[in-house]
Specification:
Blueprint lengths: L1 H8 L2 E2 L2 E2 L4 H11 L2 H23 L6 H26 L7 H18 L4 H20 L8 H18 L5 H4 L5 E2 L13 H24 L2 H11 L1 H6 L4 H27 L1 E2 L6 H14 L6 H19 L4 H15 L3 H18 L1
Length: 357
C-alpha cells in the first residue's frame, strides 16, 4: 500500500511531474487556501470588535452636541435595520414605517408622562405594541404586493399624525402641542454627564438588536425570507409558509421601528404629531437605499447619511438645501448603486484578493 501511495505521488504526465501540471497546480493552490477564509473571518471579527470598542470610547472624546448627533444616528440605524428586514430581505415595500416610529415614540412618551414609568422600562412595551400592530397590519397585506402594498402603507403614514392630533386622544397625546419629557438622569453616581449616559443606553440596545438581526437573517428564517423575495413560487413548493414568514417579518420589522421611536422620544425629550409626517417614512426608505438593501451594516451608513447630509446641504445653501440634498442623493445612487455597504464590501474583496496573490 505504501508503495502505491509513493508511486502515485511521483507520477508524471507528458514527462513532467504531476505537481507541475497546471490543473493540478490550481487544485493544490485551492486546497492550500482553504484555511484563509477562516483567517479572514477571524480578522473580520477582530475588526468588528475594534469598532465596538471605538464606539464605546467616542463619548469621552466628543462634545455634547456631537454625542447627541451620534445617539440619534444609532436610533435611526435601529429603525433602518428593521425596515431593511422587510424591504431588503423579504421584498415587501413599505412607505408607512414613519407611522410605526411615531407609535413607538408616543407609547413610550405616554408611559413616562402619564403613568410615571421609568424611561428604560418604556422601550420594550413600545416595541411590543408595534410588533402586534405590524403583525395584524401584515395579515390583510398578504393579499397585496409591490406598489399596492406601498400605497396601503402610505395610507398608514398619512393617517397616523392626524389621529394623534384628534381631540379624543388629546389628554394622552397632547394634541398639536405634543409631550415634553424630562432628560434621564445618570444612575449609580457614574462619573459621566447625561448625554453620555443616553449614548451608552442607546448604544447597548443597538448592539443587542443588531446581534439579534444578524442571527435571525443569517439563519433558516433569514434564508426563507430571501427565498420568498426572490422565488416565491419555488419557496412555496419547498414547504416554506409564505404567509407566516411575511406577517412575522412585518411584525419584527415593526418591533425594531417601534423601539427606535421610543428611543427617539428619550433622546429628543419631545414628541409631536408633526415630527412624524410622511416625509419621515421617505427618509427611512432613502436610508436603506443609500446604506444598501439586504445588508446589516448598511443601516449604520444610511443613518449617518440621512442625519448628516441634510445638515451639510443646509450649510452649503441656505436658500435651497433640499436641492443640494437631492443632487447628493442622485450622485450617491449613481456611483454607488449597491449602497455604501456594497462599496465597502467591494473594497474589502479587492484588498483580500491582493493579499491572497
Amino acid at each position: 500500500m505504501a508503495e502505491q501511495v509513493k508511486t502515485s505521488t511521483t507520477s508524471t504526465v507528458a514527462g513532467q511531474p504531476l505537481s507541475s501540471v497546471p490543473l493540478v497546480k490550481s487544485a493544490t493552490a485551492q486546497i492550500q487556501a482553504v484555511p484563509l477564509p477562516r483567517r479572514l473571518a477571524g480578522g473580520r471579527a477582530w475588526g468588528i470588535g475594534a469598532i465596538v470598542v471605538i464606539g464605546a470610547l467616542l463619548p469621552f472624546a466628543l462634545q455634547n452636541f456631537y454625542i447627541f448627533q451620534l445617539t440619534l444616528a444609532m436610533v435611526y440605524a435601529i429603525a433602518l435595520i428593521g425596515l431593511n428586514m422587510l424591504v431588503g430581505y423579504n421584498g415587501q415595500v413599505s412607505l408607512g414605517h414613519g407611522a410605526l416610529y411615531a407609535i413607538g415614540a408616543y407609547i413610550a412618551a405616554i408611559l413616562m408622562n402619564s403613568y410615571d414609568w421609568p424611561y428604560w422600562l418604556s422601550v420594550l412595551p413600545a416595541g411590543v405594541v408595534c410588533l402586534v400592530f405590524g403583525y395584524f397590519f401584515g395579515l390583510p397585506a398578504l393579499r397585496l404586493s409591490g406598489h399596492y402594498l406601498a400605497l396601503a402603507s402610505l395610507a398608514l403614514a398619512v393617517t397616523t399624525p392626524q389621529v394623534l392630533k384628534h381631540k379624543a386622544l388629546e389628554q394622552w397625546t397632547g394634541g398639536f402641542s405634543g409631550i415634553v419629557l424630562s432628560k434621564p438622569e445618570v444612575p449609580f453616581g457614574l462619573p459621566i454627564n447625561q448625554d453620555q449616559w443616553i449614548y451608552f443606553f442607546v448604544y447597548a440596545i443597538m448592539l443587542v438588536l443588531f446581534l439579534g438581526a444578524y442571527n435571525l437573517l443569517r439563519g433558516r428564517i433569514g434564508r426563507a425570507m430571501i427565498a420568498i423575495r426572490d422565488q416565491p413560487i419555488a419557496a412555496e413548493a419547498m414547504g416554506i409558509n409564505s404567509a407566516i414568514i411575511k406577517t412575522s417579518t412585518f411584525g419584527v420589522s415593526a418591533f425594531y421601528t417601534g423601539v427606535a421611536g421610543a428611543l427617539s422620544a428619550i433622546v429628543v425629550q419631545f414628541v409631536s404629531p408633526d415630527s412624524y409626517d410622511f416625509f419621515l417614512s421617505i427618509t427611512l426608505l432613502v436610508g436603506i437605499a443609500v446604506g444598501g438593501f439586504a445588508t446589516i451594516s448598511g443601516a449604520i451608513y444610511g443613518a449617518l447619511f440621512i442625519l448628516l447630509v441634510p445638515n451639510f446641504a443646509g450649510e452649503l445653501s441656505k436658500s435651497a438645501p433640499w436641492a443640494i440634498y437631492g443632487v447628493l442623493l442622485i450622485l450617491v445612487m449613481y456611483f454607488l448603486p449597491t449602497g455604501f455597504a456594497g462599496f465597502v464590501r467591494m473594497i474589502g474583496q479587492r484588498l483580500s484578493a491582493m493579499f491572497t496573490r
